[in-house]
Specification:
Chain lengths: 215, 197
Amino acid sequence: MERTGIHELSAAYALDALDADERREFEGHLPHCPECREAVGSFQETASALAHHVDMPPPPPALRERILEQAKRERSNVVPLRTRWILPATGTVAAVAACAAIGFGIWAATLHNRLGERPEAVGLIGAQGSLIVNRSGEGILVVRNVDPAPVGKTYEIWVIQAGRPIPAGTFAGGDRVAVTLTQKIPDGAIVAVTLERAGGVAKPTTTPLFRTGSV
Amino acid sequence: MARDLAHLSDEALVALVARADDSALAELYDRFGHVAYGLALRIVRDPALTEDAVQEAFLAVWRSAARFVPERAKASTWILTLVHRRAVDIVRREEPRRTEPLEAAPQPSANLTEDEAWLRLQRTRVQEALRRLPDQQREALELAYFGGFTQSELADRLGEPLGTIKSRMFTGLNRLRELLADTDREEERWNEPEFTS
């Protein structure tokens, strides 16, 4: 197919208006054509705006339950990596590295170059959760399944820029933690969490238990 | 129960879904289930098949969330694209194709949740942009997107050459994108005087 012809198909593809053969042919072309990939992305966003065109009745409530039940049934087959994050008793490097291997690479969004109206998320290395940051650099740390801090201890959050950690809040642990950081997060900074004595300290005294990639 | 995830972006929820977090999947469903169901119902027209399409699409979200690339698409676009693809594939298996218009079912305006209010705004904005498209382009877009017709079926149905249909869809979608971008800009300068042609 001639070049302009296949470019034009990006609209029909985004509208799902290609038949099975045409779709297959276009999907074979996509990996080789950055222009078409960009056009498809942009056209799909426009096309999906059409989904909001008509007011329709809501789905029956049973559908939600059916989807969630089916998803849970599939979980053990699909994602075998879900592990409860266990606080390393002595903060051993090996344990942190093992956790990092699980979390690393699943989510590596960079934030500062995106302009959505909703905040963005950066994944954590070494724990389940995300750091959510809005455009002005305000952040919320969301972590799941963090063992409760031992008596006399607290988890402390650090915003680290150019190697300099600034204390940004404390929390006690739990199944679902969401803490608003007391410090803004500049571009290029990372956010890390250490275990410190209750009340928090001005400078970290232990190795980070988990952290973000670069924000 | 799942509402403590309400402050997360759609993209953050997909990241949690990639880690097999079913409460994040529930939150995504709470955000997009209504639009997804409405879209699929508009295309498929049969409630049971519509539920199949929505269920398959959300399970596809569940299975493939780790492959979602946030730099490439918004999560909402990704999800609705999956829903649309499933619905179109289902309706193309059904013969004869149902083409009678579906009654819209406006919801009562009392007790709008924040999400419903947002949906309603979106709808007004899309309807306005569609209204400003040339008739033939709007017709091609609507028949393709909501009718589930392939471009060749559209050419037959409208009695036009395939090339004409292709370019109507391309030009129409391009124009719609510009019109939607214009309304975005208008919202940004909502307190400035408005000049319309």
